[in-house]
Amino acid sequence: MSADTVTDVFEAHRPVLQGVAYRMLGRVADAEDVVQEAWLRWSAADRSEVREPRGYLVRVTTRLAIDRLRQVKARGETYVGPWLPEPYVTDFTDAVPDTADQVVLADTVSLAVLVVLETLSPLERAVFVLREAFGYPYAEIAAVLDRGEPAVRQLAGRARRHVEERRPRYEVDPAERRDLTERFLAATAEGDLEGLLSLLAPDVRLVGDSGGKSKAPLRVLETADKVARFLVGVAGKGIADLSFRFLELNGGPALLVLSGDKPDSVLQLDVLDGRVQSVYIIRNPDKLQALAFV
């Protein structure tokens, strides 16, 4: 296999590898590091021993991601305030033409699901990602993880139950989420407390991720009244040279807030029955750097 062919084969599979690594880690930079390490191993591999490139690359990437996740958990890193995954630019339209498959991919990369995945063990998370997001058969997952198929089925069942019990319910219709986000933005910018309250579910939650590096609530805010009053108060203080951009992040519409040309925050909503169920605000500057180039 020529050097060009080796590169072409890897690049053809890069989106899948990046998708696996990000869902495993919830961090774009870590996922990119894992994919880069997978490239180094692929470029040095004995081609005569690689029967199926995609299977080989997914196996290497998954095992590297498990190792990275174990290192993070072993360090016992403390995080200031609530943690949310790093925003991830997504567009499944071209890569996955089938609408049903797009819905599955969007769901498994959503902020709500990724927060729940943080509570799984590295092996449970790997099985869930490969099975639920990418539809791998149990036998192939067993080969990836070097585990028996019955053990993999047990891991899958445990992970699925855990996620289903803890994941919030929400609508995945992007048009409805976009419309509600626009109305939410208008009411917040105008300081319209009553307008905001009409959009929020009574038990709405606001999760702000700053990592202690910018201003955001250090605890999850709950109830429509507390969330609405917080948002109106923040809007009243203003941001210098403010502008907005809509992006598709983590499988759904999101709002990128800019101060000048610099990303200030990302806002995304979970919606159910025409009401906002969750408000996610990411303000940790370390998690917004990549969005400056989008």
> What is the succession of H and E elements?
HHHHHHHHHHEEHEEEEH
- Percent in strands: 15-25%
Give the helix proportion (percent range): 40-55%
Q: What is the first-to-last residue Cα distance?
A: 35 Å
CATH fold assignment of the domain at 174-293: Nuclear Transport Factor 2, Chain: A
- Strand tally is 6
Strand order of the largest sheet: 2-1-6-5-4-3
Backbone CA Rg: 20 Å
| The first-level CATH class name of the domain at 174-293 | Alpha Beta
Please tally the helical runs, counting DSSP H or I stretches of 4 or more residues.
Answer: 12
Topology at a glance:
Elements: H1 3-25, H2 28-44, H3 53-75, H4 99-108, H5 111-117, H6 122-133, H7 138-145, H8 149-166, H9 174-189, H10 193-199, E1 200-209, E2 221-222, H11 224-237, E3 242-249, E4 252-259, E5 262-272, E6 275-282, H12 285-288
Parallel strand pairs: 1-6
Antiparallel strand pairs: 1-2, 3-4, 4-5, 5-6
Helix pairs in contact: 1-2, 1-3, 2-3, 3-7, 6-8, 7-8, 9-10
Model description:
The protein is of the alpha+beta class and 294 residues long. Helices cover 54% and strands 16% of the residues. Among the domains are: 1-77, Rna Polymerase Sigma Factor, Chain: A; 174-293, Nuclear Transport Factor 2, Chain: A (Roll). Strands 2-1-6-5-4-3 form a six-stranded mixed beta sheet. The longest helix is centred in the first third of the chain and has 23 residues, at 3-25. The two termini are 35 Å apart.
